[in-house]
Write a structure and sequence with these properties.
The protein is of the alpha/beta class. Helices cover about 30% and strands about 25% of the residues. It has three domains: about 5-260, Rossmann fold, CATH 3.40.50.12780; about 315-435, Luciferase, domain 3; about 435-535, 2-Layer Sandwich (GMP Synthetase, Chain A, domain 3).
Length: about 550
């Protein structure tokens, strides 16, 4: 079985049921009416803020794009890159590439022009599908893109270097092209997040994609009447693999182009959403907006919302405790994964285990997990070691990087680089990235533990802890603290709060600043190390930082 079989099945048995809805609140003409009432009305900007697509339309669009690729001479195994913001066209293009037997290469929409060039070259992409937001960036590198045979453009105001996708695709066949594809064929190249350096190209087979569908649906029990709210970027394995549960169950998904608390809650209310996947910052923003009075829960119909789950980063237990105060009937779950393990699910908490909040859980459906020391021996209870995982969603390799592949894939196990412990009930807790562990005077300090503690302070919105050079002990723990809007905190107040920590874990320095995160919610610690670790903590100027500007 290959991943496109699920789409074709839904198109066959649920042709008229809605598969995807795109909601763009920025184009909403009036807050006094619901989005449904304006479903087909053009907004003042000329765009539609709510569009929808049935399963049959989804499959037809995918087939048409697959046939367009075939008529242009693209063959099985050719790489086709997607550089689009989340939109209704994104997933049909993705599945069209797969139906053509090509390898899909989703691109991070935050990449600079040079990063786009680097990743296109690394993946050997010979075709690019792009949107209007990227015209300027592609213009800067167009003269270096001779290896890209075709650039298709989705949108208005066609740039000189691209071809209009919609003008060509309408003439193509709406049936699946006759390409022999099996589950062992290569399907996708994803890129690592780059939080530890330049992105690596991660090659997956159809087997991986199918396994993600099955694992996700087993974990969150999506049924046909569920509605999934997708906010994170579709280029990342996290968002897409959670949506794969909707694909398997034939249920509707909402693509929301915006992350404000009001937009999230309104979409849940108007679209009768039952499952929402959030990143930690977005969940914090919703809680802050409730507590500040910016949003009022009684203004929304949230009765169908049954599950809130979080992934992509360690989840502070204090956050979930706050969440349950306002949403006591919600099931909660967290999923751990990497792009190398086809995204979330290789370790899974389970909605029945909220008493273990703070843990990432146990091995997910069809997965194995162990915690090992430097000699690959399993460690004991509450002993820290490296988390390794094994299952059907493991990557084939880092494309064109045998050395890096051999470092992390050994004897069928993926060495995640994450340090973890296992408690007496076999629940796994992350303690930090292996590369982020701070060694201070011979003691191992795990920043995640300190970050979780700091977020318990009612004034603190976010925190990051990094190791910075110290002549005496090698490294010291330095806390970067982002305060909530309107809050102030002195260094003395911070140090007093930290007295609850064991002495060796207390941050020796504090900087009040924004905590940078990538689109999947992970703290960008290389940026913090570059800003503060190398030049030596000269930016200690804003001890009362709390403003958005």
């Amino acid at each position: 079985m290959i991943i496109t079989d699920f789409l074709e099945k839904n198109a066959r048995i649920l042709p008229d049921e809605i598969a995807l809805v795109e909601v763009n609140p920025a184009l909403q003409p009036s807050k006094s009416v619901t989005w449904r009432e304006y479903n087909l009305i053009e907004a003042a900007t000329g765009g539609k803020y709510r569009r929808e697509m049935s399963w049959k339309e989804f499959d037809v669009k995918a087939c048409k794009f697959a046939n367009l690729l075939k008529t242009r001479g693209f063959k099985k195994g050719d790489k086709v890159a997607i550089l689009l913001m989340n939109c209704l066209e994104w997933l049909p293009i993705y599945f069209g590439i797969l139906k053509a037997g090509c390898i899909v290469v989703p691109m991070n929409y935050r990449y600079t022009s040079e990063e786009i060039l680097y990743c296109l070259k690394l993946a050997d992409a010979s075709c690019l599908v792009m949107g209007p937001e990227f015209i300027g960036r592609i213009e800067q590198i167009h003269s270096k893109l001779g290896f890209v045979n075709t650039i298709f453009y989705e949108g208005n105001d066609l740039p000189r270097f691209a071809e209009p996708l919609e003008d060509y695709i309408c003439f193509c066949s709406s049936t699946t092209p006759p390409v022999e594809i099996d589950e062992e064929d290569y399907a996708a190249i994803y890129f690592s997040s780059g939080t530890t350096g330049f992105p690596k190209a991660i090659l997956h087979k159809h087997t991986s994609l199918v396994s993600a569908c099955i694992t996700e649906q087993k974990h969150h029990m999506q049924k046909r009447d569920d509605v999934f709210l997708c906010i994170p970027p579709l280029y990342h394995t996290g968002a897409k693999m959670h949506w794969f549960g909707s694909l398997l169950s034939g249920s509707k998904a909402i693509l929301l182009r915006g992350v404000s608390p009001e937009w999230v809650l309104r979409t849940v209310s108007d679209e009768k959403v039952s499952i929402v996947w959030l990143l930690v910052p977005w969940a914090q923003d919703i809680l802050d907006a409730i507590e500040s009075g910016e949003v009022k829960l009684e203004d929304y119909d949230l009765s169908r919302w049954r599950l809130m789950h979080i992934g992509a980063q360690p989840v502070p237990p204090s956050l979930i405790q706050r969440w349950k105060q306002y949403f006591p009937n919600h099931d909660y779950d967290t999923n751990y994964g990497l792009s190398e393990s086809i995204g979330p699910g290789c370790v899974h908490l389970g909605i029945e285990n909220i008493h273990k909040v703070g843990a990432i859980g146990k091995p997910g459906y069809n997965w194995e997990a162990k915690i090992v020391d430097e000699k690959d021996n399993e460690v004991g209870v509450n002993e820290a070691g490296e988390l390794i995982v094994k299952g059907p969603g493991l990557m084939t390799c880092y494309y064109k990087n045998e050395e890096a592949t051999n470092e992390v894939l050994r004897n069928g196990w993926l060495y995640t680089g994450d340090m973890a412990i296992k408690d007496e009930d076999d629940f796994i807790f992350l303690v930090d990235r292996k590369k982020d562990v701070i060694i201070s005077g011979g003691e191992n300090i795990y920043p995640v533990q300190i970050e979780d503690f700091l977020r318990k302070n009612s004034k603190i919105k976010d925190s990051a802890v990094i190791g910075t050079p110290d002549k005496r002990v090698g490294e010291i723990a330095t806390a970067i603290v982002e305060l909530k809007d309107g809050e102030t905190m002195s260094e003395e107040e911070f140090n007093e709060f930290c007295l609850e920590l064991p002495k060796y874990k207390r941050p020796r320095q504090v900087i009040f600043d924004k905590v940078p995160r990538n689109p999947t919610g992970k703290i960008e610690k290389p940026k913090l190390r570059e800003k503060y670790g190398v030049v030596g903590l000269v930016a200690k100027e804003t001890l009362a930082y709390g403003d958005k500007n």
